[in-house]
């Protein structure tokens, strides 16, 4: 474990990486398997295409790729990493955590490793957790990965969900910051009274898998989309306001917003309520990657870095909402 001699003020992103499967699936694919249309999917969700992972790839494979890219981008080696946090709700196995396979695959021999499941809010939850570990002096370099293989838990007979999801991985390395760059404000929350809005009922200890339950696809994600929609708008706005307040900032201070990419209509509505320009300041990649849950924010950050949209010194807002319900926001100077 790296020794931290001086108490950091906060933590900051020092490396960014990503990994997207090469198999691109457009909306027309779903016209052949369920009663839907390219037009419906585009209009109601904003999604045009998404990526499907190859059958022989695991969550830990994608995580190792994006993690290594982030470590290289940070100018570090795997041996420098103290902790790996893998935000995911689609791990390789329930036991042990998927993060330990990543630890082994990348050779992060000095790292502790654990998974964090907060559904689509996992990356924001992970960022806030990692920050606390760094600021306390417990850890110096933390690899935070968001990865989902949602197509492995999708019911391809359910048109209300199967058109939405994609597979992806994104990662950042966080390190100590001694100046104004880094995490400046944060908020996390949950509402477990709404756990049935987005759920995968079977596979845990409440409903262990049986042939009948598998036949009923209870091991796949179910979502009450329309009801979820309303909560998504409210919680994304509220989480943004609270994270900004905790940074002593307001919406005008934000250069770029990285929201969880679930639905462009939701995000337009959030932008309007926050009085932040959707066109100029919301980074949107949902149309070509779909909803990738915990991977969506780091994948967007990686794309913003690669396309030159994310620049050093920018003040950014990350805001997420997902199954749980869970929600949260973080304000950072990059
Ligand atoms: N193609 C055609 N018609 C469809 C499809 C489809 N793929 N899916 C549903 N429909 C139908 C419905 O059956 C319904 O028909 P009916 O009126 O005859 O009953 C009609 O379209 C309208 O359905 P709604 O669910 O009301 O459609 P809505 O406009 O709400 O859009 C959507 C659905 C895209 C899912 C939207 O509600 C949404 O994005 N919700 C929020 C998702 C979200 O934020 N999730 C959080 C994170 S996800 C996670 O945690 C993994």
Record the SSE blueprint.
Blueprint: E1 10-19, E2 23-26, H1 28-31, H2 38-45, E3 49-52, H3 59-73, E4 83-87, H4 98-106, E5 112-116, H5 122-135, E6 142-149, H6 159-162, E7 167-177, E8 182-190, E9 198-199, H7 211-215, E10 222-223, H8 225-246, E11 256-259, H9 264-274, H10 278-281, H11 286-289, H12 296-306, E12 315-322, E13 326-333
Parallel strand pairs: 4-5, 4-6, 11-12
Antiparallel strand pairs: 1-7, 2-3, 6-7, 8-13, 9-10, 12-13
Helix pairs in contact: 3-4, 8-9
The chain binds acetyl coenzyme *A (ACO).
Number of strands: 13
- The rounded Rg comes to 19 Å
CATH architecture call of the largest domain: 3-Layer(aba) Sandwich
Q: How many DSSP helices? A: 12
Order of helices and strands: EEHHEHEHEHEHEEEHEHEHHHHEE
The N- to C-terminal Cα distance equals 25 Å
What is the share of helical residues?
25-40%
| Bulk shape | globular
Strand order of the largest sheet: 1-7-6-4-5
Number of domain units: 2
Please name the defining characteristics of this protein.
334 residues; alpha/beta; Peroxisomal Thiolase, Chain A, domain 1; 4-stranded mixed sheet; binds acetyl coenzyme *A
Describe the structure.
By secondary structure, the protein is α/β, with parallel strands linked by helices. The protein has 2 domains: 10-179, Thiolase/Chalcone synthase (Peroxisomal Thiolase, Chain A, domain 1, 3-Layer(aba) Sandwich), CATH 3.40.47; 183-333, Peroxisomal Thiolase, Chain A, domain 1. Helices cover 33% and strands 24% of the residues. The protein is built from 12 helices and 13 strands. It has helices at residues 28-31, 38-45, 59-73, 98-106, 122-135, 159-162, 211-215, 225-246, 264-274, 278-281, 286-289, 296-306, and strands at residues 10-19, 23-26, 49-52, 83-87, 112-116, 142-149, 167-177, 182-190, 198-199, 222-223, 256-259, 315-322, 326-333. The strands form 4 sheets. A 5-stranded mixed β-sheet has the order 1-7-6-4-5, with helices on both faces. It has a 4-stranded mixed β-sheet with strand order 8-13-12-11, with helices on both faces. It has a two-stranded antiparallel sheet with strand order 2-3. Strand 12 (315-322) and strand 13 (326-333) form a beta hairpin. The two termini are 25 Å apart. It binds acetyl coenzyme *A.
């Amino acid at each position: 474990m790296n020794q931290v001699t001086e108490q950091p003020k906060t933590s900051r992103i020092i490396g960014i990486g990503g990994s997207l499967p090469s198999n691109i699936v457009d909306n027309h694919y779903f016209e052949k398997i369920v009663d839907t249309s390219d037009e419906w999917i585009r209009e109601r969700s904003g999604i045009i295409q998404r990526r499907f992972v190859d059958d022989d790839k695991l969550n830990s494979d994608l995580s190792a790729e994006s993690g290594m890219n982030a470590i290289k981008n940070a100018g570090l080696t795997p041996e420098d990493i103290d902790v790996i946090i893998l935000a995911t709700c689609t791990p390789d196995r329930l036991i042990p955590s998927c993060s330990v396979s990543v630890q082994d695959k990348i050779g992060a021999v000095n790292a502790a490793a654990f998974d964090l499941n907060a559904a689509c809010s996992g990356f924001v939850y992970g960022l806030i957790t990692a920050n606390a570990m760094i600021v306390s002096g417990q850890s110096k370099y933390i690899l935070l990965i968001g990865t989902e293989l949602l197509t492995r838990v999708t019911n391809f007979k359910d048109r209300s969900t199967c058109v939405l999801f994609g597979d992806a991985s994104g990662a950042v390395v966080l390190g100590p910051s001694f100046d104004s760059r880094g995490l400046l404000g944060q908020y996390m929350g949950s509402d477990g009274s709404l756990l049935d809005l987005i759920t995968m009922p079977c596979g845990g200890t409440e409903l262990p898998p049986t042939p009948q339950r598998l036949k009923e696809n209870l091991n796949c994600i179910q979502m009450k989309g329309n009801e979820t929609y309303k909560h998504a708008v409210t919680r994304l706005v509220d989480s943004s306001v609270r994270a900004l307040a905790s940074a002593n900032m307001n919406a005008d201070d934000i250069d770029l917003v990285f929201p969880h990419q679930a639905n462009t209509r939701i995000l337009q509505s959030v932008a309007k309520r926050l009085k932040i320009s959707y066109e100029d300041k919301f980074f949107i990649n949902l149309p070509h990657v779909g909803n990738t849950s915990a991977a969506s924010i780091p994948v967007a950050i990686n794309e913003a870095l690669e396309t030159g949209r994310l620049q050093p010194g920018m003040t950014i807002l990350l805001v997420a909402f997902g199954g749980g319900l869970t929600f949260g926001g973080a304000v950072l100077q990059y």
